[in-house]
Design brief:
GO molecular function (chains A, B): metal ion binding; methyltransferase activity
CATH topology of chain A: Rossmann fold
Number of strands of chain A: 8
InterPro entries (chains A, B): MeTrfase_7, MeTrfase_capping, SAM-dependent_MTases_sf
Keywords (chains A, B): Magnesium, Metal-binding, Methyltransferase, Transferase
Shape of chain A: globular
CATH superfamily of chain A: Vaccinia Virus protein VP39
Order of helices and strands of chain A: HEHEHHEEHHEHHEHEHHE
Largest interface: A-B, 28 and 28 residues
Protein name (chains A, B): Jasmonate O-methyltransferase
Distance between the termini of chain A: 33 Å
Helix content of chain A: 40-55%
Number of helices of chain A: 11
CATH class of chain A: Alpha Beta
Pfam family, one (chains A, B): Methyltransf_7
Oligomer: homodimer
Strand content of chain A: 15-25%
Number of domains of chain A: 1
Largest sheet of chain A: 8 strands, mixed
Chain lengths: 336, 336
């Protein structure tokens, strides 16, 4: 995690040092709801202010754009802004930070050409723009599952990968048009590493498969649904970046993060507090996944689904480390 | 109303013709909620597109900023955007319009310096930034009323006027810093003309005074409350603009609009459909005023208040024209 913090600082410092904009325009893509998205803003301001002090320059003004899908609850974040502005004023200049909201999908254009200095995106890019099987029949390929599971044939991986490649390419193309020359991007997303590792989405899929077998959900509902996420490998990500051609990779770092976000010490006994940790993980995953699952399976089965998910997590924790791999990658726009 | 439409078209056409920005940045200040604010966007786009056709130029891209206070319900407007974008695509180029939300008070800075081409504000600027009596005692001056009424002494007018002058000056100063050189503003607001005219806010104040006399609301609640609106005269507006010095007035037009927005023919019998019109007016005013009134008087008295308001409107309509004066003013930033 220290390396990731270092990449963030390095990218922002380099960007500011090389371009010194009087107004620094920053967009947070997939900002979600609440105070975390405002934490990103104050982190970025702090890093730039430290750089300015070192370089003996006046700090720039900032124009931030918080982006998420049209259905996101922006009102909740907006209501946090008065307090946030008051706190900023306590130690910064007045009128130095202007915060906007930009609704829409980042798989497409969001800003005018040549208008943004820095893009930041945390935990958004492993979400696909749509169900990768849309218009295709998955029944013969991945019957009874709604994500990639250990028993899925390679063709299922390929369909997911194809959607990821298409989406990520469109993402890069859109951002490169919107970035000023020399502009930068910092992306954080879930990825797959060489070590085989159980994913959260696979665990949800397996829970739903169990419920299908017990007649608790309808077969046709499971058949028509796929969780639209893909954890790409670093190699797959690198390939799309190289083929699209607008960016080069400055740095990257993969961190292993336990499902409950807790720091893991080597040799630690994973069964300790298993129930509490499983409950915490389930509450978090439910907050993220429930809107999508409700839309397909209805509200009635949600409690049962997450009770079963939690039990599965408790069992799995006894035999393996439940971790995900988080990639932080820093990209700079090529000057072509 | 035709003249007002002409002013809008003239201002936007002149602005585009003289500056031809590749990306035209427009902010709607006090956008409120719903489809009307999106209508402003399509109006502006249409006028610029017509101008481009006449001048044989490619149309610009647009970046819109919808502004209102932090407590405004932005989610509702944001949910209308996907349909709005789809409709735009039917007859415009792709990626030509980017819509953002900018929460905050327009009595202060909202945007970086030199960043906006056109400001538009409809029905926002007669709202003051605060209760003009804040920190002062109004008891001796305007006892039993919560706005300027016919019996209010001149000192009450003066306190309201002073707040308006302070607010409007700060508004102009903030906007002039945010506008690009040659940038323009179109403001619509309620004003006072030479003909004495009953105001909607006075009518609410009188209704509340009646309720105080009948013991339906508490004296101290009425004493601690003032409706924070002021209808300035054209002369008062002109004076602030001249003293502040950043803008000159291109054109202005005052239209008389009946409280229910209906077009009025000369010699028309105002009592026709009085009940229906009063109900319509009351519903509209309630939507605008209720949040403010609830915060001071509580929810319990709201039904009674607006039943009485509606009755008062029916009675008043029998003896006078209930109209308000709507000023549209077009301003250009002076090149200093």
């Amino acid at each position: 995690m220290l390396k990731a913090k270092f990449i963030l600082e390095e990218t922002i410092t380099r960007l500011y040092r090389d371009s010194s904009p009087t107004c620094m325009k920053v967009a947070d893509l997939g900002c979600s709801v609440g105070s975390n998205t405002l934490l990103v803003i104050s982190n970025i301001i702090n890093i730039v202010h430290t750089t300015c002090t070192l370089l003996n320059r006046d700090p720039p003004t900032f124009q931030f754009y918080l982006n998420d899908l049209f259905g996101n609850d922006f009102n909740t974040t907006i209501k946090l802004l008065p307090d946030f502005y008051t706190k900023l004023l306590q130690y910064k200049e007045h009128d130095s930070c202007f915060i906007n909201v930009t609704p829409g999908s980042f798989y497409g254009r969001l800003f005018p050409s040549n208008s943004i200095n820095l893009f930041h995106s945390s935990n958004g890019l492993h979400w696909l723009s749509q169900d990768p099987f849309l218009g295709l029949s998955k029944e013969a390929l991945n019957k009874g599952n709604c994500h990639i599971v250990t028993t899925s044939p390679p063709s299922v991986y390929k369909i997911y990968l194809k959607q990821f490649q298409k989406d990520f390419e469109l993402f890069l193309k859109s951002r490169s048009e919107e970035l000023v020359p020399g502009g930068a991007m910092i992306l954080l997303l879930l990825v797959k590493t060489e070590t085989p590792r159980r994913s959260i989405f696979e665990t949800i899929s397996l829970t739903l498969s169990d419920m299908l077998l017990e007649g608790l959900i309808e077969e046709e509902k499971l058949d028509s649904f796929n969780i639209p996420t893909y954890e790409a490998t670093m190699e797959e990500i690198r390939e799309v970046i190289q083929e699209e051609g607008s960016f080069f990779i400055e740095e990257s770092e993969i961190d292993m993060v336990p499902w409950d976000g807790r720091k893991i010490e080597d040799g630690e006994d994973f069964s300790v507090d298993g129930d509490i940790r499983a409950e915490f993980i389930t509450r978090y995953i439910r907050a993220v996944m429930e809107p999508l699952l409700v839309a397909n399976f209805g509200t009635k089965v949600m409690n049962e689904l997450f009770i079963r998910f939690q039990k599965k997590v408790v069992e799995l924790m006894k035999v393996e480390r439940l971790e995900y791999a988080n990639l932080m990658i820093s990209l700079t726009k090529t000057c072509s």
